[in-house]
Fold this sequence. Notes:
single chain; Methylamine Dehydrogenase, Chain H; four-stranded antiparallel beta sheet; 32 strands; extended
Amino acid sequence: MATKQSRVGMEAHAEKSRRMSLGLAGQGSTNDFYGKSRTMIKPPNQVQLSAEELKEEITRVLTAVNPQAPKNQVQFSNHVLTFVPKPCDEGTLILFTQNGYLLDIDSPEARVQLESGVDEVPQEEEEDDTAEANETKDDQEQPDEEAEQGEEDESKPEPEEAEFSKAEEADDPGAPATGEEEEGAENQVAEASSGPKKKLTNAFNFCERASQTMNQTHKEANVETQPPPRATISSNVNAWNIYDTYQTNFEQQQQEKQQAQGKTQPKHAENKPVHVSLERKDEQEIIKVARQTRTAERIINQNTYDEIAQDFKYYEDASDEFKDKEGTVLPLWRFSFDPAKKLAVTDICWSHTYTDLFAATFGSYNFLGQSYGQVCLYTLKNPTYPEYHLSTSSGVMCVDIHQTYPHLVCIGMYNGTVSVLSLQTEGREPICLSKTVKGRHSDSVNKVHWGQDNMDGNHNFYSVSADGRVMNWQLVQSELRCTEVTTLGMPEVKNEGPDGTVIPVRGCGTTFAFHRKDPAAFLVGTEEGNVYNCSTTYSSGYLSSFPAHMQSIYNINWNFFHTSIFASCSADWTVKIWEQDVLTPLFVFDLAAPVGDVAWAPYSSTVFAASTIDGRVHVFDLDIDKYRPICCQAVIDVKKTRMTKVSFSLVHPIILVGDERGNVTSLKLSPNLRKKPKEAKNADAKRCFEIELEKIEKLLSIVREPAGQ
């Protein structure tokens, strides 16, 4: 009976220990502790699964290898001087690493150490076991007196009770040891004290060795050159200082002449007047200060025209807010040159490199009023005087500035001569002239255009003349060589001589325009109103031709965004918008006066401007109004002169117009004339180009004729 009670006590003790480990010791049940029944709370959005779905097992395999890690990386090896494969990174992240000294007891290394007599358990583990045994001893309850008496009376305990008692004695370090146990402990102590403990070798320990080679010393070599000489020139200039300077210089020149002739200079009387020549024969001193004087001149002009400069930069017409579609132009600077006041502005060309620089040519369209010509290069920073000017013996009819080399300028004159100017040379004479070239034009050159350099790297340009020929000119060692590209024939017109011989008739070329994408394709306009489609690769003749206007064509201009759209203007009062390879115009605008020039805007695919001889500028935006201009404004006095040319600036929101009095007037466009789509406000250049192309394509889809008609 005592044995059964002991077993019951031990079971109660085991149950108590289990409950204490679970945190439930001293508690009867959950309901007793909380005072209410346990309820299961489910969220309202919990998914209801069936029994089969709950039993379904979903396998998820987690791996430390990154499948997106590159496996073909290479790195340069200085040893073999080539690229070698780089060990691939599996994407594993090591958070903690520690060198251990424990071995698996079943491993061969552990068996070798056990056989060699090395202690298995370190001292720290023995201390931990002792502490755990003491805690177990304190938690155990003292057995009852009856249980102790029953254990003494019982001579043969049951097997389970014997095992439990042995385990309890083994766990209890304070229990008295038996004789056998004391003998075994003495033997172990003797064996441990018989020899020194062997030191465990750690196979994971290693010694890092490194060596440092001698580094090459850095050497610096400095060279100091002598600085260029500098001189400060400053003086107060007035009328008598200038007079005294010229008089001193004149006397010095006279002395040098007399010394060269071996004569002595006579003394001048004090009351005898001295004649001073104002013509400077030595310009070296002027050349030295030319750059400084030009800068000072620009500063003075900026102060003089400060109001116009402020309008150019910041003024916006506030009246556009109350106008739905219409806009205005604001006159800014007027560029004029005294030697060109009696000449007409024949052409205007902007520089692609310097956005504030443009060239203007001056001549006469009157056959009986031909005299001289002028070429002037102006900048917006100095409207009073040109940066470069050249006077010619014949009227200059056209000009073009090289896109890559902005110092090269080619011009065409009324007498059929073409020449090339270089702005880098000190003199003002052209570097190339076609007067002595065999096969040159025999009539006025109406248009020139720089082309791409040929295979030999020589610069070349094209020209069209009233003699009905398109020529190509090459610059070879400061000489011009010409090649005939095509002849503008008119097979429909027959001119028979007195003996019945048919003489071929040529069209009089007035203008041409090269394609913006294909440098070999170009269009030619004639005085007969025909447009010729030509190519530089076919020198035998033109590709096709069609009648475009009833009178002379003054200009042809390609669209900046759409490669197959171009505009033409004529003396028949019309401006027409064409599509390449289509014989009927897309738009026709009657301006009630001969149209001298037409130009597409570089910022919009649907905006273009035209100038008429009655002094008006017409600005159209086909996206807003397809029938009328959104701006029609008179900018010059028609009683005194007539307008000839118009040109858009490539960067600034201004246009230039020229008249027959040698004046070039700049006009600023109001905000309504340069509106951009909402999508293009914060877009990059490529996206803006696509938006403008989509805008004109949408417009063309409306006006194009259906296929088959």
